[in-house]
Design brief:
It contains five helices and no strands. The chain is an all-alpha fold and 125 residues long. It has one domain.
Length: 125
Amino acid sequence: MSMRIFLIPSATAALMLALPAFAAEDAQTFVNKAAIGGMFEVDSSKIAQDNAKDQQIKDFAKRMIADHGAANAKLQKIAGEQKLQVPAQSDAAHKSDLERLQSTTASLDQPYVEMQRKAHADALG
């Protein structure tokens, strides 16, 4: 599973390079989904990096911040070149997940891992 997770940014970059082949509406939909997912990956990982109990979770969160931060920057650049708008804010569902993660009083390790699993499954469609 971890190899697949680390390949996500590469797959995202490859898909972004294919944007010109999509119709404008499809490309914008992709940019919206990728940007919102990317923001969630980074924001949730920052919470986990600061608050996780397990060092492996903290290390994973650090890697997610780096990988998805780079993918988000590439998305921003390519979307700009294609005259597409990148959302500045996350959607309600992802905001709710972040709030739930921040307010977790017990260990957030398991909820964070589950959220990452779901986010990556959603990204793969």
